[in-house]
Write a structure and sequence with these properties.
11 strands, nine-stranded mixed β-sheet, elongated, 9% strand, single chain, little secondary structure
Length: 329
């Protein structure tokens, strides 16, 4: 039963992704490739499955893992599938909206219906695929974050042309837990865009054009801003100090010239490879005031691809369960 349900979902997802109408053909750069594995980060395997390969996925058992739609699997039953957007457009009761499947940025402030719109009839669900409380807008030629149903928990809008995140893009989305905007062209984020989201745990922004890190809510557990252009001056002083739930901080392939300290005790994985880090204070990881304290959680530190000789800082690692990855010349 379970694999069968999956097959149905995959078929539905794939069919829909393909059928998504283009909002606007910019004629700009060709579709961004997600071949991030070139950058030597093993985690990037998640991104290896490109949209072009959808039709070739045979081993459905690994689909979830590869594409990381983690929220999808446990909740879905065949009977609860969202209608195919095309079918939706054919329904008579969809009314005017059926004729205007194009996204209308800004409709959040002036919704078509005064009453809350059920997720699957939300205008954006004609362009994106809405399943349960997840909204899938990958590779849909978006230039802005679309208005989202108020109960959205997960947004996937990868491989689009979004250039900026505006302050109001996520307003009122109190349940939003995960935002994945990988492989867009984001260079600007209004400072309140993410900071006021009370449930945000995972912010996934690799392969954009950020020069500064946006302000983050304290609920964040997973920040991924790899493959951007962030210099150390693009981070607030002590940017991560108060993020007491932060476990994954991935800032590889940026322009950082020092390790952003202090690092919260919750941190498990720090990826800073391929930056411009040349030195580090002895207390970067371990506190000299509490020499007995071991940081068991911090198991995964990557500093390879930086011009730093890690053997110059022998007393920086005593509290770590494992040495950082990098050059000990
Ligand atoms: C790195 O530091 C070690 C220890 O001080 C030293 O022996 C080695 O020559 C240094 N390597 C380079 C390339 O500077």
């Amino acid at each position: 039963m379970w694999p069968l349900a999956w097959l149905g979902i995959i078929t539905l997802c794939l069919g829909t992704t393909r059928a998504v109408p283009a909002v606007k053909d910019t004629g700009k750069a060709e579709k961004p490739k997600a071949d991030l594995a070139l950058y030597g980060n093993l985690d990037l395997d998640n991104y290896h499955l490109m949209l072009d390969n959808y039709g070739e996925v045979l081993d459905l058992s690994s689909y979830e893992e590869l594409y990381n739609y983690g929220d999808l699997a446990p909740k879905i039953e065949v009977g609860t599938l969202a209608p195919h957007p095309k079918d939706l457009m054919d329904l008579p009761d969809v009314g005017d909206r059926a004729e205007t499947p194009k996204l209308q940025p800004g409709t959040t402030s002036s919704p078509i219906h005064p009453a809350p719109i059920p997720t699957q009839a939300h205008p954006s669900c004609l362009l994106c695929l809405c399943i349960g409380t997840s909204v899938y807008c990958d590779d849909a030629n978006l230039e802005q974050v679309p208005p989202l149903p108020p109960d959205t928990t997960h947004l996937y809008a990868r491989f689009n042309h979004i250039g900026a995140i505006r302050a109001g893009d996520f307003t009122g989305l109190k349940k939003l837990k995960r935002i994945d905007l990988s492989s867009n062209s984001i260079s600007r984020v209004d400072s309140d865009a993410f900071r006021l989201l009370p449930s945000l745990q995972e912010l996934i922004l690799p392969q954009n054009q950020l020069r500064a890190l946006p302000d983050l809510p304290h609920t964040i557990t997973h920040l991924d801003a790899r493959l951007n252009r962030i210099p150390s001056s693009g981070l607030q002083p002590q940017a991560f100090r108060n993020l007491k739930q932060l476990q994954f901080l991935h800032l590889s392939d940026n322009q950082l010239d020092h390790i952003p300290t202090p690092l919260p005790q919750s941190l498990r994985s720090l990826h800073l490879q391929n930056n411009n880090i040349q030195t580090m204070p002895e207390d970067t990881f371990c506190s000299s005031q509490a020499p007995g304290q071991i940081r068991r959680e911090l198991e995964d530190i990557r500093l390879d691809g930086n011009p730093i000789n890690l053997s110059l800082f022998p007393s920086a690692y005593f509290c770590l369960p494992r040495l950082p990855t990098g050059h000990f010349f």
